[in-house]
Each structure stands twice: as C-alpha cells, then as structure tokens.
Write a structure and sequence with these properties.
single chain, about 375 residues, alpha+beta, four-stranded antiparallel sheet, 14 helices
C-alpha cells in the first residue's frame, strides 16, 4: 500500500503537515523520550541550541524530535520560539576563569600549568563503527556505569579548581599582543539593533556564536589552506560550566545557575612590514553554547581573519557573517520550493517574445534575400 500524497483544496497545507507526522510514526516503533534525545544526543542538542540562539536543552530536544532530526529545521523552530519569549534581564559578563572544567587542552604546548585535561573527546579514538550498539540494553548501560564508577578516581573537597590561562604565558613575554580595534567598546545587541558594516567585534562575535557550524568550518578551513591570513593554533580550549548571574530590580547580583560552554583562544602570527618591529602573535576568540569544539575553533579563526586587511572570503566581514547565518540561509534556500509562478511565468513570457522577434527578423532576411552582413548591421 503506497501513500504518495494527500489532496485537498484549501486544506492542502494542513494535510501536508499531517502527512509529515504520519511518516514520523508510521512504523509504530517505540516513541523516543525527550530525556533520551537530550542526554544521548547531547552534542546535537548543543549544536541546535547554539544556532537557535537559546540555551534550552529540553526545548532543543523537542524541536529535534518534531522535525525528525533535521538540524536546520530544529534551529529554525528554536529561533522562532526564542522570539516569542519575554526578555526580563541581561546577564552579567560570564567569568570563564572560574569555569567548572570538564575538558581543557592546548595544542601549542605539551606541558601547561595544572596539566592537560582530555575529558570527553573522540580525538584519539579510531573512527570505527560499533554494531553492538544496535543491541544495547538498559542492563548493559547499568553495567558500564557500575564499572566506570568503580574505577573512577574521585577528588576530595568541594572547591572548584581554578586554572590559569595558557596564553598569559605568551603575554608576559610580549609575544602575544592585541590587535588595535577602532571600536567604542559599546556592546551591540544584534537581536535589538540592525547590524551595520563594518560591524563592531561584539556584534561579529554574537553573529558567529549563532552561525551554522558547517558554514563556519568551511570558511575557517579556507583560511587555513591559504585563502586568508591566519594559520591558527589552539592556545587553549576549555569545555565546562560557567555561572550565569543577573541583577534584580534592586541592583543585587543573583546567580541563576550554570550553563555549559566551549571556549577557544586561537593563536595566529601577525605579519608586519619589514620596516616595523618583529612579527608577533595575536588572539582570535570563540565561545558558544554546549560542547561544540569545531564551532569555537572556527569562530576563533574567523574572528582573527575578519580583522585583517585581506580580500579573501574568510577576511570579508560581511561575506562571513551573512553567509554563515544558518537560519537565514536555510530559509532563503528552501523558500525556492514555494510558489514562484508569477515571476517565473513573467520571465518565460519575456523569453518567448524575444524568440518570436528573432524568428520574424530571420524570416524577413530569407524573404528579402538580405546578406548576412546586412542582417547583422540591421
């Protein structure tokens, strides 16, 4: 039995939506619980929250279930949901120095103060398919957790360890220096103000944090391959939870919880004219929701390239920021599926009229025995 389409005049759109829901559940398998999506697809949920521009793991999981795993559509729905929410507070600046670190690495140095913390990563694993996951049971999960907890080393004390910055070592030597930015220092809220180019760095970083991860990676990779001025190294990357605080109506600072973020400080060499001083290192910065290391690293690379004077795609601020905006790019690309009858038919009519005029001119040429040169002059 084949279900190809549901017809219905005025109800066609509603019927199409019903058909989408039918295809999601038509095989009558066990429904996926939201907690399963939130926990077992945590990296995907983190990615959607970043592009949806709202830290709401449960809502991101619902969106992902609703659209059958379509990341672009999930971010679109989450961004639309965010737009309906009332804004009560602006948070205080987060302090990543006091992050509850789950992962902390540097590719610039082998030994760093307080040591490398590999944490959860697949960087050093073989990319082999694990077919045994097809038969995973709750019992096997419990057994794994028991074995893990039995072999885990627990630290005593409730004090959160504070880690010094790796890049501060280079600052002390004078090797790492800030690149001059001609900005006022005012923070721009891109959700309340139209972005004007050249955009201040605060606006650019906000747009990068909401951008589509694959688009950022594409342009950052182009810069690494030579279509840009930066060949960056991870000075330090951290994954962990940071405290969020707001000020109440009486001006008192109140902690409202913690969120997980990924922070990347990317080092790249700045070339200077021969008449100037020696080259030095500068910093590109990236910070995004959840554990999304690819995005944070790409942000750091593009933050640096967009502040250079080159003309590569990765160095053109407007090109980078507009073309990595996933929700807008997705919406525009997919709107091409919607009716364009009037504009396309208008274009067809113009083409047909031009062909008719050409045919009539050719017919006159044949009847009047005109030479080809005469016809071209005419």
């Amino acid at each position: 039995m084949g279900y190809v389409a549901i017809k219905g005049g005025e109800d066609a759109i509603s019927n199409a939506e019903i058909l989408v829901d039918y295809y999601r559940v038509k095989d009558a398998t066990d429904p996926i619980e939201i907690d399963q999506i939130r926990t077992q697809f945590r990296l995907l949920v983190d990615k959607i929250m970043g592009e949806g521009s709202i830290y709401a793991p449960e809502h991101a999981a619902i969106a992902l279930k609703q659209v059958e795993g379509d990341v672009f559509e999930s971010a679109f729905i989450l961004r639309a949901f965010r737009a309906t929410l009332r804004r009560n507070y602006y948070s205080e600046v987060i302090d990543t120095d006091n992050m509850v670190v789950e992962r902390r690495i540097s590719s610039a140095f082998r030994e760093i103060p307080d040591g490398q913390i590999l944490g959860p990563t697949r960087d050093y694993t073989q990319r082999l398919l694990h077919p045994n996951l097809a038969e995973e049971t709750f019992g096997s999960i419990e057994k794994f957790l028991e074995d893990f907890e039995a072999g885990a080393i627990l630290e005593n004390g409730n004090e959160i360890p504070k880690y010094s910055r790796v890049v501060d070592l280079l600052r002390k030597e004078g090797i790492l220096r800030a690149v001059e930015d001609n900005e006022s220092g005012r923070l721009v809220d891109i959700t309340r103000e139209a972005v004007k180019f050249p955009a201040p760095r605060s606006a650019a970083l906000q747009m990068l944090a909401r951008s589509e991860t694959g688009g950022l990676m594409c342009l950052a990779y182009s810069a690494q391959r030579g279509f840009g001025s930066a060949h960056a190294t991870v000075g330090e990357m951290r994954v962990g939870k940071v405290k969020i605080a707001v000020k109440d109506s009486k001006g008192r600072t109140r902690s409202i919880g913690r969120i997980k973020v990924t922070e990347a400080e990317m080092l790249s060499r700045i070339h200077v004219p021969h008449k100037d001083k020696v080259p030095y290192l500068s910093l590109g910065y990236g910070l995004c929701f959840g554990q999304n290391e690819t995005k944070a690293i790409s942000m750091g690379i593009l933050d640096r390239t967009m502040r250079s004077d080159g003309d590569a795609p990765s160095e053109a601020q407007e090109f980078v920021l507009y073309h990595t905006e996933g929700v807008e790019s997705y919406g525009f690309t997919n709107h091409l599926k919607l009716p364009h009858y009037v504009t396309f038919q208008s274009g067809l009519n113009n083409l047909r009229q031009a062909m008719d005029r050409r045919k009539k001119e050719m017919d006159k040429w044949r009847v009047g025995n005109m030479t080809r040169d005469d016809f071209k002059k005419k």
